[in-house]
Amino acid sequence: MAQHFKPTIDATVLKIFVLETDQPHPDTQNEKGSFGQILHHHFCKAGADHHPPLGVETEQVFVVTEEGGRMPKLEEFDLYDGLLITGSMYDAHADNPWILDLLQLLKELWTKRPDFRFTGVCFGHQLLSRLLGGTVGPSPTNDWELGHSAITLTPIGQRLFRTRNASVDLHQMHQDQVLTAPTAKTAAGLLPADAEVHVWGRSAHTAVQGLYIPDRLFTTQAHLAFDEDMVKRQIQMRVDSGGIDDLEHADRAAETAHLEHDGVEVAAAILRLLRFDDDGIVENGEK
Question: Cα(119)–Cα(18) distance, rounded to whole angstroms?
Answer without folding.
Answer: 9
